[in-house]
Amino acid sequence: MSSVAGSRAKADGPLKLAVPRGALFGETLDVLDGAGIDTSALRGDSRSLIFETEGLTLVTMRPSDVPTYVEAGAADVGITGKDVLLENPDRAVYELLDLGFGRCRMVLAGRKGDTRLGEAQRRLGMMRIATKYPRTAERHFESTGRQVEVIEVKGSVELAPLIGLGDGIVDLVATGRTLEENDLEVREEILECTARFVANRVAHKLRAAEVDDLTARLRKASAG
Amino acid sequence: MIHPIPPGSRDVLPDEMRELRRLNRALIEVFEARGYGEVATPTIEYDEVLARGGGRDTESAYRFFDENGELLALRSDMTVPIARLAASRFAGTEPPLRLCYLASAYRAVRPQRGQMREFVQAGVELIGAPAPEGTVEVIEVLEAALDAAGLDRAVIGLGDADLYRQLLTEFGIEGEARDSLLGRLAAHDIVGLETELAEVPGISDQQAATCVALSQLRGGSEVLEEARKLGGEAVQRATSQLQATYETLAERGGADRVQIDLGLLRDLGYYSGAILEVYDPALGHVLGGGGRYDGLMKRFGLDLPAAGFALYLERVHVAQMEEESRRGRAS
């Protein structure tokens, strides 16, 4: 039994799908289109958060909120990045499908030509790492036997080492352009992330046919 | 003045207590009517006794020393204390033994998750009745308990605790690799499962596909047929046991709300054979669970087959309220 929580949610009516706004939004809509789900209402500039389509309710939210809504059953299924799932390992959701898009790398980066990371490790025994992904960063350094001080920041993490908050950063990199523009370079690859299709565990049991059908359609659409 | 209490614990005030009491009474009446006598055991026990449950999740989260330096622990469920009680107090009694309880148990919580350190479980233990009859009886008591709570839409998932351990052994996967795969299956991390299966040496694509496909099979008796098509000894054993349980239930009219689920895997260390989970459409969380623990009593020196279930009382109460308001809207 992984969790003993009391949050409430209903599994009646059409299946609720959590759709991530932000970087994954466009490709998520494309895959949903490919799976035969009408996303035209989401493509307009509507400020609505909830959209009814045939047999499915689409709920838009921040990618990092998707595991929270799905775990509680407020959304039955959802799409979010593996980076989000790794950062929230205790959110008990079923990870059903790797959708393959939104590919990016979690990396350790430092200033170009700067030896601070190595120096800090050698002379101080500890690097200071700024990141939006503290748990993923901690796990990486722990599993490679290094001690670090992880500093959590919420905004542009590239700023931190430039003005002396931390010796390096752990961040997601898609094209590498942001790093380049801020005079940073990749020092280590930590892992690769893609978009994932997740389900609430009760919805996966009680609405098995609908969840399986949607999984199969998404599998087909994302493979094409 | 506000005086804090630890996170994951709470006070119950009269309005809620009245409803909880009513629910408690309804559940205990169901248990008693079917011959299950209520017992209470100490909240604290010797850590060494509780540790015989084995497995990560049965381990006590709260341990401390008494004035004599003995290591004590708060129970994390009632099955292990009742196994201890049955072995010490009823060793000479003619089985089967039918016991029920309504008791607090304690588990570690993660901060800010609304999880409870202290929660109440209501359940039964049937000791000395083998599968499938014993399992069927436990499921029938569970169904009656759900009816008494007004959860007529609740569904009971029925799976097999040994299926994947045996399947992976059949595939020649042992040790760490097997434990890691079992972890993926328990978390239902299908992406991770597929990735890891692809990396295990000596396993064919077809075997990997069988493992993934099995974990997705859930529904009526037709899933047993689908599972058999995937083949193998482990599948054969699990499906024939599930079929025996399901058919006996069906003959007695109790199979309607049971979903056969070959993807079910509970992470408590003592389960073997049939395992159960309870869901209600009004709630995103599992309401309770249980199953057979044919090897646990032996660890206490009384070698008897056994089965039981526990419902999380607070969650049943939440589901009860949701179902009531749904019925209110419908009428």
CATH architecture descriptor of the largest domain in chain A: 3-Layer(aba) Sandwich
How much helix is in the residues of chain B?
40-55%
Give the topology string of chain A: H per helix, E per strand. Answer: EHHEEHEHEEHEHEHEHEEHH
| Overall CATH class of the largest domain in chain A | Alpha Beta
Cα-based radius of gyration of chain B, to the nearest Å: 20 Å
CATH fold title of the largest domain in chain A: D-Maltodextrin-Binding Protein, domain 2
Largest interface: A-B, 33 and 41 residues
Characterize the biggest β-sheet of chain A.
6 strands, mixed
CATH topology category name of the largest domain in chain B? BirA Bifunctional Protein, domain 2
Structural class of chain A: alpha/beta
Radius of gyration of chain A: 20 Å
Structural commentary:
The complex is a heterodimer of chains A (224) and B (331). Helix content of chain A is 34%, strand content 29%. Chain A has a 6-stranded mixed beta sheet, with helices on both faces. A 5-stranded mixed beta sheet of chain A has the order 8-7-9-6-10. Chain A has 224 residues and is α/β, with parallel strands linked by helices. With 331 residues, chain B is an alpha+beta fold. Chain B has helices spanning 14-33, 47-50, 79-89, 133-148, 163-170, 175-187, 190-199, 205-215, 222-230, 233-251, 313-330, and strands at residues 37-38, 44-46, 63-65, 71-74, 97-106, 118-127, 155-160, 218-219, 258-261, 274-279, 288-292, 306-312. In chain B, the strands form 2 sheets. A 9-stranded mixed beta sheet of chain B has the order 1-5-6-12-11-10-7-9-8, with helices on both faces. Chain B has a 3-stranded antiparallel beta sheet with strand order 2-4-3. The termini of chain B are far apart. The model of chain B has no long low-confidence stretch (mean pLDDT 93). The chains are: A alpha/beta (224), B alpha+beta (331).
